[in-house]
Specification:
Layout lengths: L10 E5 L4 H8 L4 H14 L4 E8 L5 E8 L6 H8 L6 H5 L24 E11 L5 E9 L5 E5 L2 E2 L5 E9 L11 H15 L4 E4 L2 E2 L2 H4 L2 E6 L12 E6 L8 E4 L5 E5 L10 E6 L2 H4 L12 H34 L11 H16 L8 H17 L4 H9 L3 H11 L2 H28 L1 H4 L4 H10 L10 E8 H12 L20 E9 L6 E8 L8 H16 L8 E9 L4 H7 L8 E5 L3 E7 H19 L6 H10 L6 H5 L1
Parallel strand pairs: 2-9, 13-15, 18-19, 19-21
Antiparallel strand pairs: 1-6, 2-3, 3-8, 4-5, 4-8, 5-6, 5-7, 9-10, 11-12, 12-15, 13-14, 16-17, 17-18, 20-21
Helix pairs in contact: 2-5, 9-10, 9-12, 9-13, 13-19, 13-20
């Protein structure tokens, strides 16, 4: 510290040994509300009972000055040089509590007075305190932002009256007009809410209005936070205060009286809620120097316990809010469900609808009819394709990023979205099997079904009936195309693209109805399935078997196909088979349906639609029982018309 004498020895200057740009960074010039809060905390640390903040605004709405006044014990002249001379080393860091009222102290870093430069480029502290001899002294400390390292301290002047300090900031700083925003008082209220709740005798006012959390908070709740490391201190307490507007989310670390010692991130997702969380524990006082690193030491366990309590709090709030909104929708007749869900799938669907709809409730139309239409649209999308809901919501409501992220999280949850999608797929499959039975077995329909233009086209989109793992590779193409796709899957395509043509034994090309493929799990092997479809009225006999065998022979005889990693199955499928083929398909040394097995992993099958449909229903029986779905109902034909309208036979479309 250095001194300069001027004005007839009435002023001395204390100098901070630090670069001016560093000091101005500590001032945090872009945060005037934080600077006001710092001045208030300084007053409370000085045991003030009354603190007032006045912001003088000119005719055009610009801030002219900021004044913070308190009735605390002030700063004795003899101590002013020590208070202002350096960075760090604040008396508060060692005192922990105020001398008379034993309040927990907010300040401890010895940098708080620099925050005043965020309010004005010229700052004065006019303070009245009791000197060592018991007399009252007034001292004026002045600083300017151009020389933030220097503070001028006046000689003491004897006065009468009460103690206290008045901070006057003039020549407005660059961002000080932010103090005129509507939410400034609310921000300050959120900052001091726990302290004011614990100290009802303290009065803080901003622009003449008393800061009273009870007048602005929407709700408040408290929870004990059991923690094994609390030592001899009373159990930590989590206080959660909700606000009508966003005041900036923080997890404030406080002593038991609500003095904020440090701040951390809440670390939770709670879209639609504005809140401040206060973790109150006297153990923070002894560890206040370590609080900026609390996430990295043993205190991290306490913070995580608090966050778990916070998550549970908002989960409960979500449930309460959801019940309230849904009841309102039911009362006004806009809720798209009636009664209670009967089946598990219905319960899952409704759970997802309730969660999504209540998330976007604030953005729903106000008019009952429009709201009813929107909610019905949401229900329709969720019941059919929950994965497609997000783009619909984005198009309808243009949601902000935070709500987009939350909805994506909901829609990606396996317990909801995937279950709904899976049950929807199972329902569709059961409907299709019922429709397929009608197509191939019901006389009035089956005799008119065309193999290539109707049955074939339908099965191109329903290849799961041949096996869930199969994927369509080619449809209604030549054996040459089969070869090309086979080589592509194995990565063996010739560089020049040339391949020898594939021919059946009689020299003809051969057109394959369906080529399906699937990879083996855990290795590079593959299975290929060639399916030859016959119209329902065609019985599988020797001619049909000869045709499918000629395809198998073409593959076996052509060296271009050979690969030990690939197994081939060839199916001929229709409604019935003659007696000779049925005997071959029931041979005791082969799997049911297999009529021949050749070397090189080649098998030839004759399959009936009844066998294939029964196999599929066996795979789906578990879901069918729980969905309580009748696969012979009208839903089957409705599915065929809706999904395969262009390929469905006229008799189905007419139905």
């Amino acid at each position: 510290m250095s001194y300069s004498i001027c004005d007839s020895d009435r002023v001395r200057t204390v100098h901070i040994e630090a670069k001016p740009d560093h000091l101005l960074r500590l001032a945090r010039l872009k945060d005037p509300a934080g600077a006001v809060a710092e001045m208030i905390w300084n007053a409370l640390d000085a045991e003030a009972h009354n603190v007032s903040v006045e912001v003088e605004v000119n005719e055009i709405g610009g801030v002219e000055s900021v004044v913070v006044t308190d009735d605390g014990h002030g700063m004795p002249n003899a101590s002013c040089a020590h208070y202002f001379e350096g960075l760090g080393g604040s008396w508060k860091a060692t005192a922990k509590v105020s001398p008379d009222l034993r309040r927990g102290l907010h300040g401890h870093s010895g940098q708080g007075r620099l925050r005043a430069f965020a309010l004005g480029e010229q700052v004065q502290w006019i303070t009245v305190a009791q000197a060592a001899d018991g007399r009252m002294q007034r001292t004026v400390i002045s600083g300017v932002a151009d020389r933030p390292a220097d503070f001028e301290i006046s000689e003491p002047v004897l006065v009468s009256g009460a103690t206290g300090t008045r901070v006057e900031a003039s020549v407005p700083a660059g961002y000080v007009n932010r103090l005129t925003q509507d939410d400034t008082a609310q921000q300050l209220t959120s900052t001091f809410a726990p302290f004011l709740a614990a100290n009802p005798g303290v009065r803080i006012s901003y622009q003449g209005d008393v800061l009273d959390p009870a007048t602005v908070w929407t709700d408040t709740a408290e929870y004990p936070v059991p923690w094994s490391g609390s030592g001899g201190y009373p159990e930590p307490l989590l206080r959660v205060i909700g606000w009508p507007k966003n005041v900036g989310r923080v997890l404030a670390l406080c002593d038991a009286n609500g003095v904020v010692l440090d701040e951390s991130s809440p670390g939770i997702q709670a879209p639609g809620y504005h809140f401040t969380a206060y973790l109150l524990w006297d153990g923070f006082v002894e560890r206040r120097d370590d609080l900026p690193l609390a996430e990295m030491d043993e205190l991290s366990g306490l913070l995580e316990c608090a966050r778990e309590r916070l998550r549970a709090h908002f989960k409960k709030r979500d449930m309460e809010r959801r019940v309230r909104l849904i009841q309102e929708w039911k009362n006004e007749g806009t809720y798209p469900y009636s009664g209670e869900p009967v089946e598990p799938a219905q319960a899952v669907e409704r759970e997802m609808f309730d969660e999504v709809a209540t998330r976007i409730a604030r953005r729903l139309p106000g008019a009952a009819q429009s709201k009813r239409t929107t909610l019905r649209l949401l229900r329709a999308v969720i019941s059919r394709d929950p994965g497609g809901l997000y783009p619909v919501l984005d198009e309808l409501f243009r949601l902000p990023q935070a709500e987009q992220d939350e909805l994506k999280r909901i829609l990606q949850r396996t317990s909801l979205s995937q279950v709904i999608k899976a049950t929807g797929e199972v329902g569709d499959r059961l409907d299709f099997l019922a429709a397929l039975r009608k197509l191939v077995f019901e006389p009035d329909v089956s005799r008119t079904v065309k193999e290539r233009s109707e049955l074939h086209k339908i099965l191109e989109r329903e290849t799961w009936i041949f096996g869930d793992a199969y994927a369509l590779m080619i449809s209604d193409q030549s054996l040459d195309a089969v070869l090309r796709r086979h080589l592509k899957e194995l990565g063996r395509e010739p560089e020049d693209g040339r391949l020898d043509p594939v021919r059946r034994e009689d020299g003809r090309r051969g057109i394959v109805d369906l080529l399906l493929g699937r990879a083996h799990r855990g290795n590079s092997g593959r299975e290929h399935l060639i399916v030859e479809l016959k119209a329902p009225k065609v019985k599988i006999g020797q001619v049909e078997v000869a045709q499918i065998k000629s395809y198998a022979q073409a593959v076996v005889n052509d060296p271009q196909f050979r690969d030990p990693r690939v197994r081939w199955d060839f199916w001929v499928v229709s409604t019935e088979m003659d007696d000779i083929v049925r005997r071959d398909a029931s041979a005791p040394n082969l799997p049911p349906g297999c009529i021949a097995e050749w070397e090189g992993g080649v098998r030839i099958w004759a399959r009936t639609w009844s066998e294939i449909i029964d196999d599929c229903e066996d795979r789906l029986h578990f879901y069918r029982d729980r969905l309580n779905q009748d696969p012979a109902s009208e839903h089957a034909m409705e599915y065929l018309r809706r999904v395969h309208g262009a390929a469905a036979p006229e008799t189905v479309m007419a139905g």
